[in-house]
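Same chain as my last thread, 83 residues:
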Amino acid sequence: MDIHSEVLTILDDVLGLGGRGHSFTRETALLGAVPELDSMAVVGLITSMEERFGFIVEDGEIDGSAFATVGSLADFVRGKLGG
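reply #2:
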């Protein structure tokens, strides 16, 4: 499974980026840089990641640093999947 590609797909779908998300790299800033990524969108992203990858994000387990860049978000998912 290509976690980076899956994360890009989730970002694009949840934020309604119309394909723009697929051009993001690991270094692409998210929180504070992508206007569509507000507090409600963060909740939607977490829910979508839980559904897509089959894990549960506990309260307090994730903070803003996970949403700093595409890479940090992919690394969070990778960590949840144990790899």
